[in-house]
Amino acid sequence: MAISPMRKLTAVVLRSDAETVIRRLMWLSCVEVTSPDIESGDSSFDSEYINAERQTGRLDRAIKLLKNYIPKEKRTGLFTRRPYIKQERYDADESVYAAEYGHAERAEEISHRSAEIENEKISLQGDKETLQPWTSCPLPLDLTGTKETRVWFGTLPASTTDGSVWAAISDVPCNVEFISEDSGGKYVTVIFHISGEDAVYAAMASLGFVKLDRREYKGTAAANIARIDNEIKKSDIEAAALEAELYAMAEKIDDLRLAYDAASAMLSVMTAKRKLGETRETVILTGWVPLKATEKVAAQLDKLHCGYEFGEPRAGDEVPILLQNRRVPALFEPVIELYAMPLYGTYDPTVIMSVFYFIIFGLMLGDVVYGLLLAVGGLLAVKLLDLNAGIKRFVGLFAVCGISCIISGIFFGSYLGDLPVVFLDSMLGIKINTPALLFDPVADPMLFLVVSLVAGAAHLIAGMCVKFYILWSSGKPFDALFDIGSWFVLFAGLGILIVNREIGQYVALAGTALIVLTQGRAEKNIFMKLIKGLGALYGIVNYVSDLLSYSRIMALGLATAVIASVVNLLATLPGDSVIGFILMVIILLVGHTVNLVINLLGTFVHTSRLQYIEFFGKFYEDGGKLFKPVRAETKYTHVIQ
Known about the structure:
Layout: E1 2-3, E2 6-14, H1 18-28, E3 32-34, H2 46-66, E4 84-86, H3 87-90, H4 98-131, E5 149-156, H5 162-168, E6 174-182, E7 185-193, H6 197-206, E8 210-211, H7 221-250, H8 253-273, E9 277-278, E10 282-290, H9 294-301, E11 306-311, E12 320-321, E13 323-324, H10 327-330, H11 333-339, E14 341-342, H12 350-364, H13 368-384, H14 389-412, H15 419-428, H16 445-473, H17 477-499, H18 501-518, H19 526-537, H20 539-549, H21 551-572, H22 578-615, E15 622-626, E16 638-640
Parallel strand pairs: 4-16, 12-15
Antiparallel strand pairs: 1-13, 2-10, 2-11, 3-10, 5-7, 5-8, 6-7, 9-10, 14-15
């Protein structure tokens, strides 16, 4: 339909009423708060924003932690619907949710402590593994020697032989005691007189001896292992107690979810408050309101002690864009949002774009069963699932496009590709012709190419018609007639050539002359007028290039049909036995699911591309920003106002 007219709201509010005003505007969901055009430093509301952000984050982390401890009756599933809560609960003072904030803080403490316990246990297990080979050693690990002797604990490489050890220490005054061995090496103690320490060190180093780090150990290895086992047991008991506490907290998960949504609403309010201009006693609120919503915004502001006014956008204002379309075309608005919003005051192409999107989508993914899955599945998802507004629009978009797929599938005789023909022939021995009402794209790809190019030509001409309308309605009739109308004459002549060569030539020549003679009308020099006109005629190459881009309709349509045909062939190869039927069902389910998913993505991307490049390229003025009103984005509940 159109881009909603906007009004600039300016309000002066007492500081004490600032939060109340923003909350009321938040529940209206029709005011985008912006920063005022005045110099300002840091907001005095920053600390409130940081606190709201901290509370929201803490509650979010607590809910994610507790989801594994939620009782079965409180777990949410695919078909679980969010509860409806009155608005007053979200506006309640923070003290109302003090218990929930406390639970969230405690859950965070438990999470940190649980991580510490796990790290401690890993460290203790490592120590235990280190000490395990020394359990048969009767000497305390902290023993370093006596007044005249030294004791070393350490390891030798596993490949070390007893003979090599005795040979190395044969001339050294020391004793080597083998404690144990495993794949990691041989564990030994070395006792020697302090006078021969250097010689002992040299001999043992030549064998690859590595000392054991004994700084943390007191007593024998067996005693240390017993101590470690006791500490691990205490850690397990503490971890079990913390887990039990989490299970108890999870019983109150619904309260935490409500508290999160309330904190999220508070965060939205604080985000808007940071944008307010400030004086000592008042704040200045500026923002944008759709024209149709000014009355209800005024009704709310009239209830408060504030002064306000609605003004027209001024030159240089960055006016946000809100598209206004009826129910079905509105489903196609996300396609525009994914590209770029139009500039304020320009043309909204949603309605006409949605018609061609619908047609082209069906041509690319034309199959009755695929279309039924999209249409019926989309409608059921909207009805049965608790989807947010953004996802719901996309699901609705695919559901509507599913209808287009059904229509194209009937025309092209595609029911899971050529499954009816292949099944009856291979499994039942019955031969039938294609059920297509028009033609089979796989059997006649050139005709499908013609259909694709005809659809593309109509799409391009529609874009030019929009440009003609924009120029004419903006008070530039000559630009519309010469810049667009002359091309229409040329294209009409080329079309008539197919029916009547003589008339078509004259009409095409007339269009060519109009282009050459009018495209340089802004130039003063007659030669420059002619040169620019001839240069503009070269634009026909761009039109031909744009038209050829629509051959991708044929490519995507054939890809869908051919892959479906291959799946059907593979599914019917096992024959008409019981096992053959079972395998057929499995292959059909897997194959067609993959085909639908892959080509659904390709169809969405390429249908959108044809809108963005070929269609929008003829008239679209982008650069607008999406209208984002301050609103409470609830995640776990619905708001009843």
